[in-house]
Amino acid sequence: MNLGKYKNLIFYITTIAVFSCLMYYFIIEGQTLEVKENIVANTSSGSTWENFLESFKTNLHHPLALLLAQIVTIIMTARLFGWICMKIKQPTVIGEMIAGIVLGPSLVGMYFPEFSAFLFPKESLGNLQFLSQIGLILFMYIVGMELDLSVLRKKAHDAVVISHASIIIPFALGIGLSYFVYQEFAPEGIQFTSFALFIAISMSITAFPVLARIVQERNLQKTKLGTIVITCAAADDITAWCILAAVIAIVKAGSFTSSIYVIIMAIAYVFLMIKIVRPFLKRIGDLQAGKNTISKPMVAIFFLTLILSAYATEVIGIHALFGAFMAGAIMPENTKFRTLFIDKVEDVALVLLLPLFFVFTGLRTQIGLLNDSHLWMTAGFIILTAVLGKFAGSALTARFVGINWKESLTIGALMNTRGLMELIVLNIGYDLGVLSPQIFAMLVIMALFTTFMTGPALDFINFIFKSKKNQDEPTHENDSKYRVLLSFDKPESGSTLLKLAHNFTHKMNGNKSITAMNIAPVDEMHAYDINEYEDSQFQNVIETSHDLNLEVTTLFKASTDIESDLASITNKGHYDLLLIMLGKSMYEGSLLGRLLGFTTKIINPEKLLNTVKGKGNIFNNSPFDDFTLQILDKTNIPVGILVEKNFKAADKVFVPIFNLSDFYLLEYAKRLINNNNSQIIILDAAGQIRNNIEVKELIRSIEQVAPNHITLYNEKKIEKEFLNSQDLMLISSKSWKNLIDTKSLWLSDIPSTLIISNP
Questions:
Q1: Is 641 left (phi over 0), alpha (psi -120 to 50) or beta?
Q2: Cα 116–117–120 angle (5° rounding)?
Q3: Low-confidence ranges of the chain (pLDDT < 70)
Q4: Per the confidence metrics, is the pTM higher than 0.85?
Q5: Does residue 151 contact residue 234 with C-beta atoms inside 8 Å?
Q6: What's the CA gap between 311 and 347, in Å, rounded?
Q7: In 506-578, which residue ranges form alpha helices assigned H by DSSP?
């Protein structure tokens, strides 16, 4: 008997047996030691099931288990409401703010008190608060990094008047508002100065991150207006946080005189960070130049800088968040370096930890305290003051410095956005005991209202000052050009689609127009590097256009709803053909994907072919992914969907005709012959062409213009070698679906395929 192949099994069994016996021996011998120590076994009087239930309940209330349950609930709820807001064209931060209020005493706590008491008991809120503060520190670090100080240095003179007016006007109105509400709403023992300063700063704040996202979504980043408003917001952010630091110092010290020492220490801290720490970090960052990764020792250095900076400002008395903001602002200005570092921090900070802050704020917000008309009138008065100060103050100042009314009102609407930054200020005031629960709830409502109104206000302004021509909605009613729009997500996809568009239009000279469009998820970009992001996306397209000597118009847009924006631009642009790639996230467009933010790699043709041969089901029996299906449903022009397998040029093209409804493909085949001298082989798969006089006449007319360029193929069996010899297959969307449904053997051998769907 050959024991060689069983030696591992014998060794495994022997080892388990020997050491199991050894453990058993020591356990038995160890139990004799209990008698000497007078240890009595713990025997419960209850049944085994009751003991299990008791143990299970104890585990449920364990601080770690409770915290994990809270995090799961918070993230799911925040993502749900964020997705809803995104679908109604609102910033996701509004949904996350609403999610916090929903989980707090204003809704869940009011109607499901037992569930609220179980999930958010008072003794657990301390852990939630500290975790949320860590999330805020990381978030403020990102905000500091997203500020482009070079832009401020170059263009601050254009926006400094608007920026400072957008702070001083609402600040003054906030002081005036405090005079009327102090006696009724200020907590007992709080001085008027402290109360007034916090009300004033809450009127003055602008949410730079939310504003930057809105500017990107509306394609304003390259306009003079976009530059001015971003610069205003950045200057506003820095100024407001410096004022907030001084306000915190005054509130903690009790008076301005007592706070002088704190303010002096804060100035010394800022000087140290700018003159000593910043040059040191720049030298460290220079070591990273040209690399695509950041080493762990370097990551440790920057995180230590963040933590030490936050610790220093907390000890000084101006709050740890100011230190985090400052640490981000002095990071090396290398865009690539900042992007790499933000990517390391952003997901954990924004997805995992920041929603905890929204819910913690919601647990403090008791809208039920506003239980009579007088309180709601006061809340309305606070909102009116906030809007007048920020919106009207910014707009009138912009108009005074010479900006037209439309852009002035747009600046006012954008600067009135408060978002998360407002909640941070309010929570600091609440923690310091300056804001009572009632005034805190009113100010949270104000933050929600002013952020929510930004989108509708911008739409209303655009409606009033409706221009004759919109950048994203070109009009060509009197233009006979053949217009092709290609939309891509990856640079290499844009290059491939451009080659295909060139094959369809090569000889049309001035009678063609090709537009290459990239619509990017707004969450993938940062305010300071959007131009670099756009350049990198279009680099391959531009290079290919030069190689082909082809004039191409580029269109870039940041979006929270790619499908809807693509369909809208396509429908309003009077295009004749839309070209896209097959292959998007299989979760994109689904509720699960929206909630969890899952993404998958682009589906390649090999994976697609494995699917239809029974090795997977990525499309759930659909011939298209969710993204493509939505585009087909929403567009009203022909759509070409490319399944790409190393496409170079459409010199040899195979066109299978399965039924009468596929005959429109001949028009595209004709276009390829006329513009690319393509060799076309038409397969009469159903034997319907030979009996159709109209189609035979069309083929004959093509032959007369371009002899020997079109061939009618009547073979029943298509060989693998034939398919492999073709450059491109043109097929109707209906026939493609049939190939997928029947798991056709063709699919393993087809060349690059253009699926054309007529509206």
A1: beta
A2: 70
A3: 1-5, 35-47, 148-158, 221-222, 289-290, 292, 467-479, 523-529, 583-627, 686, 688-695, 704, 715-716
A4: no
A5: yes
A6: 23
A7: 530-548, 562-572
